[in-house]
Amino acid sequence: MIELLFIVLNSECTRACPFCFYNTGNQRKRNERLNSGDILRFTDFLKKQGLANAILSGGEPLLFDGLERLIKELRSADIFTLLLTNGDLLTYEKKKELKKSGLSAISVSLHVDSADEMELERKITSAAEDMEIPLTFIFVLTSVNFSLAQKALQLTRKMGKGLIIQPAFIPSFSGKTNEKARNLSIANLLPEDFDNLKNVLLEWGKSFNTLAFVKLLLSLYSNQPGRPKVCGMGGTSLVLNCDGEIIPCFHREDIVPGNILKDDYESILKKNNRLSAELRHAGCFGEHCVSLFTEIR
Hints:
The chain is α/β, with parallel strands linked by helices. It has two domains: about 1-105 and about 230-280, Aldolase class I (TIM Barrel); about 110-230, no CATH class. It has helices spanning about 35-45, 65-75, 90-100, 115-130, 150-160, 180-185, 190-210, 210-220, 265-275; strands at about 5-10, 55, 80-85, 105-110, 135-140, 160-165, 235-240, 245, 260. Helix 5 links the parallel strand 5 (about 135-140) and strand 6 (about 160-165). The longest helix has 18 residues, at about 190-210.
């Protein structure tokens, strides 16, 4: 049963973050071939199979033509719909349009590429202003901005907004093209700095009921790295890319059960169930995964 569908609406973006799946080479950029109708036909099928949640991402999903119509239709099918955005295009008018569409929730990524508290506060305040949709911030944690985690925690708690602290995506493979991304890993922090960060993460875990995730995250940088017992990717979750291709996980482009533009939906799910079994017990879990993890089982 597929309960959660990640819908990658495009690979086009307003930024070029060094830890982006595309910019690290972890995923290839794809041509945008899906329209709202293509997506909705597939979600209608999945709804009968138990689909309850959809996460709209990119690229930058606010660049997708027909976004509001897509959200309206998903919500009319009683599918909880979350939008992930970097916030660059969140004007007053856009916030009102998203509210009118019925969007269930929105998450705004806080990528701050320096230890600039004023820049962090500006981004949080700008996104929260006139926002009538449940809002969660995602603080993208790096070796450069780690000292801002405490400030992000203070500001979001004061505003009554949600906060997810996730390390930037660090590829699991090596190569010159990924050197910049690898340098952003918090594994590069000095012991004293890591200890300070650890205290902030534990405080966040207690405040937002994410202690299981925090403990798993911290274990990755110890002598005894842990792993979850279960991974939803390959099990109850699925990724639909903007060219119609289905993959069981953002990190496993080597497993392709099919394409919704040319393959039978039933056969896609059956093939996915067979090919992605290895993912369910988190055998391939590593640092590259924690940019996706928020719930640990």
